[in-house]
Amino acid sequence: MDAAIVHEEMSTPRALRALVIAQLAAWIALAPAHRQIFGGRAGWAPAWDLYAELGLDLVRARFYVVRGDAREELDRYAALGFHDPRLAPRWLRTLRGETGALRVARELCKRVGDGAVIQVDAQIATRRGWSPIFADAVDLCRPQPPRALPPERRRGR
Amino acid sequence: MAAETRRVRARRLVAWIVDAEGSTRSLALIRIGAVLCLWACVGEQMHLRAAVGPERLLLSAVFYAASLALLFGLATPLAAALTAGVLLRLYVDAHLGGPARAFFAHHHQALLTAVFVLLAVAPAGRSLSLDRWRRLRREARGGPPAPPERGPLWPLRLLALQASAVYLWSAIDKLALDFLTGARLERIAMELYFGSDLPEHAAFGALAVVSAWCVLLLEIALGVGLWSSDARRWLIPAGIALHALLYLAVPVCVFSALMVLLYLAYADPAAVDRALVRLLPAPR
């Protein structure tokens, strides 16, 4: 504080200046609380939550084919004819949400043929970390019942 | 006695914020750097060919005229006010779902808007500006003496507070299970690099957890510690390294550059002045 000049008296211009500074400082320091603490959705309030939503809903998954008593892991690229994953379409490289995982499962079902069962060991990115999906699904080749979206999966604040 | 000491300290703190004056060169450097960041960030979207309708055309014209004048420090207070006005207009439009949402809804643009609003209330044209050059020329021709390159430092304090707010609110956001377990960094890495094929090696998971905690602790340290001249010596290199890494790894646009630029706001303006004199001696 070496550059400071201590004023003992509070003149009107100084008081006004202090008021303006206090208001700007309060806005800078406290306005993000609207969205980040109180869960407000007003866009005018800044929120410094950089990249907090990037990658939400992404799925990491291992697919399995079950024939009789044998459960074998499937390389989804090789099974669908893409021996170089870099040449595979985006929906196969990046599984987004249950829909994305189901799309891959459907394609795998077509390839493995009738009678085979496709299962998945999958986790989806949520605000609380990795959350299992289709844990109770016996066969992804059959239609899946609709699922409720838990609160941590909703976007925005 | 203790109460008296507290009162004196409080008065000194108020004076340090409200009354302190010093060199305006730090502000001038921030002004120049911020305009360059602004152009890098939204220059293309504000191009006249991207303007749809008369209001957007006017906004683009004012944006370029005012920011160009601000870069060179010509009619700086007016130029800064107009630039801040355009950015506020875009900010409000973007956050109310208007057309600017397509290109002005990112964090670095909110930070740029805040920086230019603060520059609009700062004596940002008293140094390294055409305004200064004109006044010196007038003085040389026998006119009134050019004002000294000094001004109130409270805008610098607020710019520093803005940078600290970014770090600390960002740290608060990271106090969440998904970040602390490394899951958030993993999904960001998946989104940007790996797709759904995250490396399964245990070391990768451990790296995500260690990186998450390092980033969190560093952000808290930067938000608080940059106010201390002793801590700044090691925090500034650490902060620059963090932002360089962010810039290389994540599409942050000008966010990294802007945050590093704002480190100037924490520094003692007299020290910045001395550094400039050392860096820019008379030609030999």
3D structure, described in words:
The complex is a heterodimer of chains A (157) and B (284). Chain A is built from five helices and five strands; from the N terminus they run H-H-E-E-H-H-E-H-E-E. In chain A, strands 1, 2, 3, 4 and 5 form a five-stranded antiparallel beta sheet that branches. Chain A is of the alpha+beta class and 157 residues long. Chain A folds into two domains: 1-47, no CATH class; 58-153, no CATH class. Chain B has two domains: 23-138 and 147-152, no CATH class; 160-268, no CATH class. Chain B has a two-stranded antiparallel sheet with strand order 1-2. At the A-B interface, helix 1 and strand 1 of A face helix 1, helix 4, helix 5, helix 7 and helix 9 of B.
Overall tally of structural domains of chain A: 2
Shape of chain A: elongated
Order of strands in the sheet with most strands of chain B:
1-2
Provide the β-strand percentage band of chain A: 15-25%
Give me the Rg of chain B, rounded: 22 Å
Q: What is the helical fraction of chain B, as a range of percent?
A: over 70%
Regions of chain B with pLDDT < 50 over 5+ consecutive residues?
A: none
Largest sheet of chain B: 2 strands, antiparallel
Q: What's the pLDDT, averaged over the residues of chain A? A: 86
Radius of gyration of chain A, in angstroms, nearest whole number = 27 Å
**How many helix segments of chain B?**
13
What characteristic shape of chain B results from the CA principal axes?
globular
Number of self-contained structural domains of chain B: 2
| Quaternary class | heterodimer
In round numbers, the mean pLDDT of chain B is 94
Helix content of chain A: 25-40%
Structural class based on helices, strands and sheet pairing of chain B: mainly alpha
Taking pLDDT < 50 over at least 5 consecutive residues as the criterion, the unreliable ranges of chain A are none
